[in-house]
Design goal:
binds zinc ion, globular
Amino acid sequence: MAIARGDGDPPTLILDAGTGLRRVTGLLGGPPFAGTILLTHLHWDHVHGLPFFSAGDRADARATLLLPEQDGGAQAEELLARGMSPPHFPIGPSGLRGQWSFGTIAPGTFKAEGFTVEAREVPHKGGRTFGYRVSDGHSVIAYIPDHCPTELGPGPEGWGEYHPAVLGLADGADLLIHDAFWLPEEVAAQAVLAPPPRSAPTPALLGHATACYAVGLGRRAHARRVLLAHHKPDRTDEALDRLAARFRADPSIAVAAEGQVIDC
Ligand SMILES: [Zn+2]
Ligand SMILES: [Zn+2]
């Protein structure tokens, strides 16, 4: 997801670096990228766009890439290189052209490209994961694309706990972008096929949330709009249309589509 300060401004803050990162080169319209990339975590679907980001991989580019510090205290570039280096890929992070710098961040508040960013740890699966709250002083975006709230318990409706970290990130946000990987009926079917042990009242859901949880969080946190994102990979356009139809009565809820532009 690429954030620009205003209409016509180039995007300077990018949240995660999946394959959609390639599209940012087109948004820039020719000039190199100059800005910051914040990763929520290091899973493939959040980093695989990096070596294909041509506006960032050129001699006149400038990029600061920040990611959550992981257990063991490894450096950011080393962590990235575990998935991006020979023999898995022809180059490592240091092979990207331009001025690239890599760093780890801890939960807390910091400034990036003129935006105020708050990072909080959220339960996911396999590696430390952050959600972000980004403000330009006028509007606020909460970005929580990978989140497994059932890790903390079933919560009031069985979709997971509405815990302080995400309630804080989403509090009064103009736009909440949240994990909507599962449909409620898929979770129910999963629970029947593989009943969880008594100590775990809800299935782990592969580290993800249901669309119902995303909507519930938006309501509890008084977010102005909710964008359902990070859909299960086999969702077709028709399936996403059906998902959108479920929430048609509530205009504050939308389903993320590729290439979508949102004004806040
Ligand atoms: Zn993930
Ligand atoms: Zn993901």
